[in-house]
Amino acid sequence: MEDKKKGLEIELSPEVAEGVYSNLAIIAHSTSEFIVDFARIMPGVNKANVKSRIILTPEHAKRLLFALQDNIARFESQNGKITLNGQGGTATPFAN
Questions:
Q1: pTM above 0.90, yes or no
Q2: Which residue blocks in the chain are alpha helix, DSSP H?
Q3: Strand ranges inside 1-96, DSSP E
Q4: I need a surface site. Which of 6, 32, 71, 80 has the fewest CB within 10 A?
Q5: Up-side HSE of residue 8: CA atoms within 13 Å toward CB?
Q6: Are 56 and 33 in contact (CB under 8 A)?
Q7: 59-84 tens-digit pLDDT
Q8: Best CA proximity match to 82, nearest among 90, 73, 91
Q9: In what order do the strands lie in the sheet with 24-29?
Q10: Domain coordinates in residue numbering, the chain
Q11: What pLDDT band is residue 94 in, cutting at 50, 70 and 90?
Q12: Is residue 40 within 8 Å of residue 22, measured between CB atoms?
């Protein structure tokens, strides 16, 4: 008898499918969770508006890291290297 993996059916409402734009992610963690705030900041404005907060287990955060690394590698192989405009690891999306 062959084991077949059950497919996961994911529902996506029109409101969620529309998406939310974010140009800043703020990440914090405790021993039991990672918190990722997705925010939008405008050039010249010193205030960011958090649009969404996602809370992940450490294991799921690591799976997300691997999925992002894989997708970025595939993107760059098709579209060229993504440059960070000299910002390196800074949290702010715009240069002062």
A1: no
A2: 14-18, 58-79
A3: 24-29, 34-40, 49-56
A4: 6
A5: 2
A6: yes
A7: 999 999 999 999 999 999 999 999 98
A8: 73
A9: 24-29, 34-40, 49-56
A10: 19-79
A11: very low
A12: yes
